[in-house]
Amino acid sequence: MTSLGYLPWHRPSAYDARPAVRDEQNDLTYADFAARVDAVAEQFSEHGVGRGSVVAIMLPNRVELLVAMVAAWRLGAAATPINPAFTANEADYQIQDADSALVINAGPDAPDGGRPSLSVDDLRRESHGTLSPAATSPDELALLVYTSGSTGRPKGVMLDHANLEAMSSMMVDVMRLDAEDRCLLFLPLFHVNAICVSFLAPARVGAQLSVMSRFTVDGFLDEVERLRPTYFSGVPTIYSMLLAQPREVDFSSVRFAACGAAPASKELLDATEKRFGFALAEGYGLTECTCASNSNRWWDVRKVGTVGPAFPGVRVEVMDQDGTILPAGERGEVVIQGPTVMRGYLNRPEETAETLRDGWLHTGDVGILDEDGYLRIVDRIKDMIIRGGENIYPKEIEAVLLAHPGVMEAAVIGAPDEKFGEVPFAYVACFPDTKVAADALMDDCRTQLSRYKVPVGITILGALPKNPIGKIDKPTLRAQHPVTSIGA
């Protein structure tokens, strides 16, 4: 049977005295963490949670979120983490859609979806010793992680313990983690990136995790100086923010950092490595494959502009519309096979069948594999702009805009057009205290792009809207368009 080595009851006893996880209020060894899990699992059991139940957890980043999640697993139940910034309407939808038996939240004024709830401050810290031995199985549902819902109501992605076992094991291999590693976590724990990269993977090897409740530039830099982490995981926006600030901090303890969730420009990756001195490994994945399928290895050949080769045990191919796997160098949809592919979407059989068809997870991303198996993401299929029959990939235009030294973020959308159906329109945010003329950006586009790819306009904003996991929120930009802009 699979070891499920990230769970307290499968870890070597040699880990017991090692530091496991800390935040602003807690500093727990592995033995402390396991004891807290047992105490909370007993409490959950008294509230009717058992095998097959779902526990909803609506908390900011803190140790108790992790304790509650693992306590659910201790009972054979699943956890569904909820963005703590959600409105009551958004939270209630997820709580009810997941059919949650219990909600863990910040207190009586927090959303509960009409279900029984426990305040985080009331979670038990000491066990009464009443639980039977843990018997968590690889085929049991572990996580219900809800997609961002950019194409409709969010869907619950069903991930079982076999998925988490495979993902955490692959990450230990790809990141070369060991017991001496110290991870600094600041990404939100309602997303699989933070859960898998920063919690489950280090837990497999007895490494340490320090949890930040939220990311601020100065707060992060303070923690780097104080805790001396060996790695962390971020998104492109965060690395842009770090580059934009003047403070110099000693990053010599950091072996590598991961970058994912959204495409990063070559300029951003190169500038980050040059300034801070650590290897920055860009990767790719999605919730439906338990976080990641590809990554550049920080310790091996890194091809900037690609998201690296597939994880060990995962097959990644590029496929045309007829289902034919394409050779290296050709453009098509990225498809994935392997033990990390989700069970499906909760209570969504038609959407599950559409995404998991013919034995492949269809990602909706357009990519190209090179001769070495390194994947380059071209764009999202749904983001592709069709201008009078010509296909335009926004990422190509965004790359030109991001190459300008004053541009921090760029997003290109398809704007309605009576003549061509839709045309490219760009939104840009600049680095702090930097001014960039839209005309200059337009000149760059005219110089480097075919005429039909040049945006019809560029709007410069103070900041681009983000979704809860830090990706640029193109649906919001589309909803806000048209706006006053500087045309081509």
From TrEMBL:
Keywords: Ligase. The keyword Ligase applies. InterPro entries: AMP-bd_C, AMP-bd_C_sf, AMP-binding_CS, AMP-dep_synth/lig_dom, ANL_N_sf, ATP-dep_AMP-bd_enzyme. It comes from Nocardioides albidus. This is Long-chain fatty acid--CoA ligase. The keyword Ligase applies. It holds the Pfam family AMP-binding_C. Residues 396-471 form the AMP-binding enzyme C-terminal domain. Belongs to the ATP-dependent AMP-binding enzyme family. One of its GO terms (molecular function) is acid-thiol ligase activity. Residues 14-346 form the AMP-dependent synthetase/ligase domain.
